[in-house]
Amino acid sequence: MDLGDAATETPDSLSHENVFSPSVSEPKHDFREELVIRPLHSGDIYASFQFRTLWKTNFRENKVSHYRLFPKSLGQVISKFSVRELHISFTQGYWRTIMSCVNGNSFICVELEATDHRFLRYATLPREIVCTENLTPWKKLLPCGSTAGLAVLLKSEKLFHSSFHSQAVHIRPICHDWECKATSWELRQTVNVVFDRHISAQGKREWSLFKMFSRTLTEACPLASSSKIYVDITDSPQGEQLELSPPTSLLSQAVALGDRRTFSVYDLKQQSTFGMTHSLNLLIRWKSNEGDMLRPLLHAERYVAGYGLHMGEIHTLMYNNHPYRSFPVLLLESVPWYLRLYIHTLTVTSKGKDNKPSYIHYQPSKDRVRPHLLEMLIQLPPISVTEVTVQFERALLKWTEYTPDPNHGFYVGSSVISSLVPSIVAMDTNMTQERPLFSSFFPNKEESTYFTRVYTEPLLVNLPTPDFSMPYNVICLTCTVVAVGYGSLYNLLTRSFQVEEPSPGLAKRIANVIRKMRGVPPL
Hints:
Radius of gyration: 34 Å
Number of helices: 8
Helix content: 10-25%
Structural class: mainly beta
Number of domains: 2
Shape: elongated
Oligomer: single chain
Strand order of the largest sheet: 5-4-3-6-7-2-1-9-12-11
Largest sheet: 10 strands, mixed
Number of strands: 25
């Protein structure tokens, strides 16, 4: 499971016959949790949590009032709004191993028995302006919450201090066989995080659960049917480069994202895993400092070109690193309305030649109503860089539509690239055996491909910005004039005038004093 593809998300809409349960004889309620840890060649470490809640019920036909493992808050949403699929993800940070990740939020909601794009909803938030903590409500959806099991490790201070972290909620109906005679509802909650050794490990190539999460494990979730930790030792099967403590004799092989990986397995449902201390603090230590960064078969990047505040150009680069196979990708672009695209300038080139897309769908924007929507199906040649460019014109917003910091720029959502990437090894399509959660997320009938989705960086675009100091100056001048003019007029209208008599002279005052002493009226 290469980290370049670890940030991929689920498909917008899995076809009804292509989703299934890995086991036929599962109970009505089932909850499984697992943690995958992969030491990276750079000395950093990647951790992926997956929690799956399975419920054999039908929200559409049956009115459900009793909830056991499935969260009631999500069940009510599915039942009331007839939601077919729901995918929400929150991602922050970048992991630059020749790949790109979205920085922001994405939301996908699908309702359909057959593919009907009228019921498809897609939204993205390139940047979360308000600082909010989304981990606590996310953990409340788990059957054990954060009191037991792997969720104990999810400490917000450590996760949000990492180089890259992503949390997601995926709800979908799954079939029990390829004929899809019986279905269940699956809730998958995932957390992916990358810890930088220079930030979290003081530059040392040594990791432990306590160093990563500031906590250790003492028990599995009592409601979980399976609770396991997988440590990827593919690059060190005999311990040549990695040392695990405590050691484990359980090994497992699984095909994930087109590659066969070897894992050391720690089963938390067995008390022997925790040892005499009744606590598991898994330690991973590198024996050598050598290692090359891996190149994913598919990765992408995007940037804005041009100068000035009138015209610009969006460049999207897609890399196919497969040595001899080409494969198609679906490129989705959602551009805000204030960037007015010139579709006639759209060009797609591969290896210096034009690459005509086999499918193009474009929906123009409406000012202040909807953004541009552009979808293209493009064939990527082997060992190539495919560049998609389109020009745009910046619009002038109303002064009330600017953000409090307009000179910072406006964020544009990332491009979404979906593809069936050729596998290095044959994918396992036998669904009757028990498999890890991470290897059964993207079911596929084909043995030679696997599904992946990559997000590029969000763009930061400057728009024509008026001089907001001029309204300030006008307001100050106007208020001053009004205050002086109105104040003077109000003073004249409300002031009362009195006539004062002149004060008597000194001789007259002395005479009055003498007359007062004699009892004579004053002059």
